[in-house]
Amino acid sequence: MTEPVWVPSAERIERAAITRFMHEIAHACDPWVSDYESLYQFSITHPRMFWQAVWEFCSVAADERDTEIVDDISRMPGARWFPKARLNFAQNLLRFNSGDDAERVAIHFRGESGVAEDITFGELHQQVADFAAGLKAMGIEPGDRVAGFLPNLPQAIIGMLASASIGAIWSSCSPDFGVNGVVDRFGQIRPRVLITANGYYYNGKRHDCRQRVASIVERVPGIERVVVVPYGEPDCEIDALDIAVAWADFAQASDHLEFAQLPFDHPLYIMYSSGTTGVPKCIVHSAGGTLLQHLKELRLHTDVGIDDRLFYFTTCGWMMWNWLVSGLATGATVVLYDGSPFYPDGNRLFDLIDELDITVFGTSAKYLSAVEKAGLNPATSHELASLRTILSTGSPLMAESYDFVYDKIKANVLLASIAGGTDIISCFVLGCPTLPVYRGEIQCRGLGMKVEILNDKAEPVVAEKGELACTLPFPSMPIGFWNDEDGQRYHQAYFAQVPGVWCHGDHAELTPRGGIIIYGRSDATLNPGGVRIGTAEIYRQVEKLDEVVESIAIGQEWDDDVRVVLFVRLRAGVVLDEALETAIRKQIRANTTPRHVPARIVQVTDIPRTISGKIVELAVREVVHGREVKNKDALANPEALELFRDREELRS
Asked: What is the rounded distance in angstroms from the CA atom of residue 334 to the CA atom of residue 242?
């Protein structure tokens, strides 16, 4: 049997919040609950008792809750959670604002340019109150939209919390989005207020945002006010834009912050699908569902508490920003970083861990791979004494990355790969501080999430690859899509494949010990000869080779079948010759199956990815087949698509 690469100590298990939660469940609800598996089974067998227990354990602040937990749990979609509850999301994130708590740091902000700012919980509460007063003065009401086109600054959090305190809906994009990408998103929801910055820093350069903001305002109807944060430069004026005002001039001094008490399913966030195959879907998430799910994941699965310093490398355009900000509800200090993680070199984020004593460090699988490819050894170059947990998401974490983390970053650390998405603003599968870590596996299915792997007959299977699905409603399911009055687009996105079941679009496997392996997106699954192959299975092998920096695989329609084509980006100075092609094929064949071996291997100098860093197999597939990519503005580097067009290597 495979040995774990990390096992929690008895002390860590005893001190974990999930252990205390388990004892409370065993005492109050089910004496048979004694380990994670029995707790998980309780959570999906008795969802009403489970979610009520999460509410109470995490001390959700609410004016009303009543005893009704869920209305018609048999409906998916359609179940309504805590239908009589009245609460406010911002109130729950700002509750540590009195006594000694008010003096603790709520936000550490560090920027690539060297800027640093620390904000206490008391100061955060006051700044939210002042900005909320500005919003109220211009008549912002519950249901109005407030949008952020912002770097990862504290003002993004303040603007979101101020909006949520009123009941307005927050939506954000990072400033590296192109104008069309922003218009495709904000143009659908028509915000009344746009919060932006006059510029941002990335990779040693300052990028001015003001001209793009003027173009966005011209093309997005309904914007009444543009609030500009001076970031790096004091000038907040935007040419020909008389509705622009500096942040300091918009906020109004306030001696009181009111929290509108609203239904559990009142809309909080509008998130967006990647939009690489068309106009992005506008996914609406509820305040109560987001809060309860995030508290469960932060407190129980990640063991975040009042003494932690929580970091995730993210932008305001990725759902991990929303997840990170919810850490304030645990009393933890949230750490923000804006800029390139590799400027001036790959040690920047590890420097941050030591500087701020970060305990939970979140990043992407691609970042860990890039650190490894760069030859860094943080275990010897840094102390990392505070670091307790590393989180990874964005794409499947390769088995070799587990080896790298434990060999070259820190041996005694919980490495938790997590997976879910913008669609649920949370995770289906993730980590647990009381479970061992096995190489290449996500530790467990999320509590309260009845996750199953379905075969082609929609039957649950174990130790077989299939479709990752959820067969029981959960609180953070979207309210729906914006401008989807009859719910047809929402239904088509998740429930058309198997009625009454959420099909997430991941090709995955449930292991006999309860772990999960993700093989890639179902819509990017390769089907040579009718055999389903997850792209991540190929990437795991190819990127073991030192010559390969990264890769992307697609299925090319060929001779009434599909053949696997692999594109590789190689180290500087390396050329794809016959010897390297042979080595790549040998590596894949030896560790997978002959079906995985690509029919063609092609060298490229860049690989297109979304602004949140995910490679885009579907867009590359469309270009290879001469079809139009409908929304290039969703990409961070759309010019890279041209590297895949009309390739001579793919004509025979």
From this structure: 35
Query: Which residue shows structure tokens 């503005």?
Result: 633
The domain segmentation of the chain, as residue ranges, is 10-81, 525-650
Residue-level pLDDT at 3: 94
- The answer, yes or no, to whether the previous bond of 344 is cis (omega within 30 of 0) is yes
The stretch 480-505 carries a mean pLDDT of 94
Both structure tokens of 58:
């995490």
Rounded CA separation 523/545 (Å) = 27
pLDDT at position 531: 67
Residue of higher predicted confidence among 504 and 524: 504
Tens of pLDDT, residues 561-595 = 789 999 999 999 999 999 999 999 999 888 887 88
CA 90/CA 162 separation, integer angstroms: 7
**Average pLDDT over every residue of 295-316:** 97
Mean pLDDT of 422-438: 97
Q: Residue 589, exposed/middle/buried by CB under 10 A (0-12, 13-18, 19+)?
A: middle
Assigned CATH class of 525-650: alpha beta
Q: What is the pLDDT of residue 407?
A: 98
Contact (CB, 8 A) for 279 and 104: no
Cα–Cα distances in Å, from 568 out to 401, 575, 625? 19, 10, 18
Distance CA 171, CA 189 (A): 9
> Residue 521: beta bridge partners?
506
Listed residue (256, 564, 536) closest to 396, CA to CA: 536
Residue ranges of E strands in 541-614? 548-558, 561-570, 600-603
* Radius of gyration from C-alpha coordinates of the chain: 24
DSSP code for 406: I
Contact between 178 and 319 under an 8 Å Cβ cutoff? The reply is: no
Q: How many CA atoms lie within 13 A of 349 on its CB side?
A: 29
Name the band, by pLDDT with cuts 50, 70 and 90, for residue 76.
very high
The DSSP output letter for 292 is H
- For residue 421, what are its two tokens? 């998405």
